[in-house]
Amino acid sequence: MSSATLILSCTDRKGLVAKISQFLYQRDANIIDLDEHVDKNEKMFFIRIEWELNGKANLTDEFIGEFKKLADEIGANWEIKPNENKKRLAIFVSKYDHCLLEILWRYSNNELHAEIPLIISNHPDLEHVARQYAIPYYCFPITKENKREQEEKELELLKEHRIDTVILARYMQILTPRFIAAYPNNIINIHHSFLPAFIGADPYKKAYERGVKLIGATSHYVTEELDEGPIIEQDVIRISHKDSLKDLIRKGRDLERLVLARAVDLHVNNRVLQYGKKTIIFE
Amino acid sequence: MSSATLILSCTDRKGLVAKISQFLYQRDANIIDLDEHVDKNEKMFFIRIEWELNGKANLTDEFIGEFKKLADEIGANWEIKPNENKKRLAIFVSKYDHCLLEILWRYSNNELHAEIPLIISNHPDLEHVARQYAIPYYCFPITKENKREQEEKELELLKEHRIDTVILARYMQILTPRFIAAYPNNIINIHHSFLPAFIGADPYKKAYERGVKLIGATSHYVTEELDEGPIIEQDVIRISHKDSLKDLIRKGRDLERLVLARAVDLHVNNRVLQYGKKTIIFE
Amino acid sequence: MSSATLILSCTDRKGLVAKISQFLYQRDANIIDLDEHVDKNEKMFFIRIEWELNGKANLTDEFIGEFKKLADEIGANWEIKPNENKKRLAIFVSKYDHCLLEILWRYSNNELHAEIPLIISNHPDLEHVARQYAIPYYCFPITKENKREQEEKELELLKEHRIDTVILARYMQILTPRFIAAYPNNIINIHHSFLPAFIGADPYKKAYERGVKLIGATSHYVTEELDEGPIIEQDVIRISHKDSLKDLIRKGRDLERLVLARAVDLHVNNRVLQYGKKTIIFE
Amino acid sequence: MSSATLILSCTDRKGLVAKISQFLYQRDANIIDLDEHVDKNEKMFFIRIEWELNGKANLTDEFIGEFKKLADEIGANWEIKPNENKKRLAIFVSKYDHCLLEILWRYSNNELHAEIPLIISNHPDLEHVARQYAIPYYCFPITKENKREQEEKELELLKEHRIDTVILARYMQILTPRFIAAYPNNIINIHHSFLPAFIGADPYKKAYERGVKLIGATSHYVTEELDEGPIIEQDVIRISHKDSLKDLIRKGRDLERLVLARAVDLHVNNRVLQYGKKTIIFE
Predict the structure, then answer these.
(1) What is the pTM of this model?
(2) Is the complex ipTM more than 0.85?
(3) pLDDT per residue over C149-161, tens digit each?
(4) Is pLDDT of D41 > 90?
(5) Rounded to an integer, what distance in angstroms lies between the CA atom of residue C181 and that of residue C192?
(6) Do A209 and D281 touch (CB under 8 A)?
(7) What CATH number does the domain located at B3-82 have?
(8) What CATH number does the domain located at B87-281 have?
(9) Could you say which residues from 125 to 154 on chain B have a Cβ atom under 8 Å away from some Cβ of chain D?
(10) Residue limits of CATH 3.30.70.260 in chain A
(11) B246 lies within 8 A of chain C by CB
């Protein structure tokens, strides 16, 4: 049976769960999953509900219209999505293949609830990978001079393919504010460090030189401030003085792959709610 | 402001969240925390709700009586507890002090939401620890012959001190079925292995001989079957061929302490729901 | 510059490091890496040395002959391998592709110091993967009746391709003792549990039913006793009551891939020394 | 039988292991443990050797004199220490007791190979802990005006008690360069973040505001640059949006305790070699 997901946030007050669950119950909805969170400091209420679509619980105009009334009443930000509608992802890559392969393997294995209509790169190197998975590959070489113009073409292509979310799978270009503004809260990056440690270029080199005993990877939403967007997922792995810089890069690759894959999985299943500089993860 | 916690389980059906949250809303309760889980295989519904006690939401006989009606209607198992009422714990120890010290340190640091009216041991060795924390220490030496008789005395003492939960902090005696039956779902043990690996005696020795690369600790409720009760918390730590049996024991101690402390913390905050051989952990 | 690796074990006694390092120094060898371990219980000495091959330190018959004298004198088991000589691996698979893909990705990425001349399966399903990587794929369907016969053909094929080590990448057949005897200490398996928990079939189902809070994967050498061979590498991942059996299988796949890949990496770089039921890992 | 430990570093060249192990062998030393590391980038050689003291292998003036000749010849930094000689530690604390208690528990449990002749604090709060363990407690309240003067008194006291190493167990004062210079490479701090993330004050608050998914703790040697000294040990723990700042502080305490305890353990067993801004850990 098909289902839908509501994600909602508003100022906390009494009776919010009752109001929302009552709304669904009156429409005969069967709630499959409900997760709520109250941030007591900020006095904010967050909820995610999944229910089976059936009869009056279907996402008709009437249903949506009535829910809008309820949401307006409580001053909420909200989104309701039918879970059949897979998010449409564009993967951006440069020359490293590990994050791309990880996502494509999960995709081809029906593990990733998403569509991947295209791959975009600033280099031709990974076209053979795209071909293996029969996904169109577009190459837009980037220079200082043509960046703006190339991004325009990319944005057009994304629009054409009705892309919801851009995944930067070790894409080695910094996007312009204009590009970022076109996909608010919908560009996911993987940074090869435990943020906020080692922001910017060459984090493994910096980690090596600092002599840390663990290295990390961080997947986050992209905002205008470099590596400062809301964090979705992080993980670390132990290293030692025996590890050369090359070893760090090799060990880090496994982290990058898994951390990005987990973040993308959470995102496409509508399990991430961005709130200020942070995320609420409904697991 | 004081608060209460409901833990409830029943066969899953439509409208359960609505029904329960509506009940609370109608009594002006402010829900602080709500966590629900549906086991689709078993078609079971589990929920934990915490709300502020105030006015009609107080735990009066009327409130409880009316909730009982609702619960009977849906055929639920349930418990409502005022969070002020701290659980009363009896710590059982033998000669090892690390788990006892960990719990007492958290207790004295106001980190453990519980009362510890007494410590019981089959050896006199740790009496000085009890004295440091000004907690009565009772010693009941156990032999094959006197076990039943000594347990009777212990049970009497527990009754007298209105003990809710028994914590076996590396207590090196197997309790009789009679004792276990007196505290159903309320005896917590720490086993020094990653269960179900290395059930029974000498798990570190067995782990050493098997050559595992990680050792673990498991905190679980005690049932009649040795080391087979519902697991509350587990964790592991990496070891290598360089570690002697003595090193395993030393490294394992840190795990045992933390895993038991986390399990006790979850239990005293009514965050564990036992269901068959498993637990639902409302974190 | 090319290099060689010595792995040696013998009864512990005074002067072993001096004797062996002196032997190399007298031949002008530059030691790149040395790791020794003494098991005080067993009074055993273990050492791994890597040195640059050059001049008198080359692996000539004279060098080997003289080292043999030294080794005989101290009653040692030993192996000296030129590091240029990559181990030749045969990957055995059934229908799951994740472990195979992980190894092939590392292989194609020049991350795995090995040759993979062939893939063997009891099913035709993964032939397309082999084709992508241009590796010959041989299919030997197995029934109770033909197992012995098919294994004979497989062994012949392995011999023909001068295979050193067999990797069971979720190969769903139990090998006969005869097959195992043909590759002593050179068959590596990945078991989808934290051994010795959940030996045998369906470990995820057993883990799900037992209600463990962590699941694991174990890579080990294959011996005649099922899942009892020396462990090379293990790891675990946290799960919760929210995870269905399907979730366990999905999360476990990531563990299986990484644990097997790390074990294979250690093995092909001559970093594993089997000793009784255990391994010494020279990292 | 008693033993000694050599820690040595020098520019890498051929025959170093042979030369050093030969030196010991000629004096009938039985090597218990040997760990060497070559940093190929820096062309540096590092070694730690433990051997049994007996006959000619004893640390006589002659032995030391002859080893000095060898060391001079290869231009090495080195230290030889009899393992009987426990390092003498002074613990510095302020008001938090968790790190202090962790160290004292291990100390009283004979798990820490060290002497703790005194505890120094800038507050009187933890005197009762010191009294429980019968260790002298000295209180030196610090103001901007008297810092220099108080440190002088502390240094005198340390000298009097022949202290080798100062452990800052959440000591909430920044030491002056003069104090730091008095104990080069021998002051160990615990910082409550995963350095280099969240340097300086209030790391948990910063972590909370940044919305990280893991928090950490770092134990390092103190140098003049705040939180920039060589790292000995680090670890992390997973958190979520459900954790308040108070939860972070509580969860972090367990990390701080264990990370500091592990770092102190490595240090007192002469298993840490500082090299530039990094450490070599001989485990």
Answers:
(1) 0.95
(2) yes
(3) 999 999 999 999 9
(4) no
(5) 24
(6) no
(7) 3.30.70.260
(8) 3.40.50.170
(9) 132
(10) 3-82
(11) no
